[in-house]
Amino acid sequence: MHFVDLKSQYRRYQAEIDARLRRVLEHGQFILGPEIAELEEALARFVGVRHALTVASGTDSLEIALRALGIGPGDEVITVPFTWISTAEVIALVGARPVFVDIEPDTYNIAVEQIEAAITPRTRALLPVSLFGQMPDFDRINALAARHGLPVIEDAAQSFGATQRGRRSGGVTTIGSTSFFPAKPLGCYGDGGALFTNDEALAERMRAIRTHGGLERNHHPLLGMNGRFDTLQAAVLLAKLPHFEWELNVRRRLAARYTAALDGLCITPAVAPGNTHVYAQYTIRVPDRDAVAARLKAAGIPTAVYYPKCLHEQPVFAGLGHRPGDFPVAEQAAREVLSLPLHPFLEAADLDRIVDGLKSAFGVKPAVQ
After folding, report:
1. HSE-up of residue 255 (Cα within 13 Å, Cβ side)
2. Residue whose C-alpha is closest to residue 286's, from 366, 354, 359, 365
């Protein structure tokens, strides 16, 4: 059993993927080839924004966004402590200070009512994370940011394809950032990411930063980086994108089956009003998480923990001066969350086996046939 089954996905789309890759191999434009512009146009249409920009990774996309906004030493950026390291890492990499705000216990997204207390004269941006596949309340976040004159960057690495009140993740803030890491809902066959905005000036700055700080060869007005997306990876996504809505619908159906089967046994994912969820991870909560995961592993059922340690608990951020208990909701989530296999090619029999394995791990006896 696979936690994410990329082999079955490839077999399903093999003819389209191979044809797209062959076309790149034949024209030989491996850097910023025509597939890059084609994909960016398709992504912009899908998200509903004027500008989409592909980049080398989801981490690069966040760093490029911060640099484009002019964020650097002495600045602060508000985010969450319960996320992958990249979210706060890029803040530190541009010389700014990550300021953490606790999360909601049900959605695992930023506790919006706590943001304002974290804003100081040094705050330059808000960087909420759309964790596990759904968005925080961006109506409230954007209104708060507008009152304080702050841009908002959505870390949508896990939520590409999700909606909130009919608007796509990536398209509801100043800048949206996502990842195309292979295990993401829409993944390529290597690292990759994208940025989204309706601001033409920001789009131009981000394009320049992506390519060593300039849009013309040998002219570099900005300090940039090599953040270009490979043409071959764009070809993979162009082959997969027409099937993406189907995959999202299957993910939601499988998640609904999990939720119905596990009702009363553990805490299952909550979907906030107005949201759709893409279930990049189907994440439950159990007090004895590690023991349950060990029992499932013994039964041949893979699981994963996103994330076993909060960012303020990581050694690299010890200098921020946080102590245990500073973010109690995030800390408890880190001790209890467990993600189950969920992908569009998960067979019904395997899902039932996972549910039965969980029931056994919880000490629930099977029903008499």
Report:
1. 23
2. 359
3-state secondary structure of 361: helix
CA distance 298 to 275: 36
Which amino acid type is present at position 284? I
- Quote the strand ranges of 173-329, DSSP E: 175-179, 193-197, 282-285
Mean pLDDT of 333-343: 98
**What spatial distance separates the first Cα and last Cα of the chain, rounded to whole Å?**
26
The two three-digit tokens of residue 312, written as one number:
């303020």
Average pLDDT over residues 121-147: 98
Beta bridge mates, 8:
none
- Tokens representing 98? 């990550």
102, 114 in Cβ contact below 8 A? yes
Whole-prediction pTM value?
A: 0.95
- Does the pLDDT value for residue 367 go beyond 80? no
**Spatial contact of 223 and 63, defined as CB atoms under 8 Å apart:** no
Strand order in the sheet with 175-179: 51-55, 193-197, 175-179, 153-155
Nearest C-alpha neighbor of 270 from the set 143, 145, 133, 161 = 133
CA distance 303 to 77: 32
Please report the sign of the dihedral spanned by the C-alpha atoms of residue 20, residue 26, residue 27, residue 30. positive
The tens digit of pLDDT for each residue in 166-208 reads 999 999 999 999 999 999 999 999 999 999 999 999 999 999 9
Predicted local distance difference test score (pLDDT) of residue 368: 43
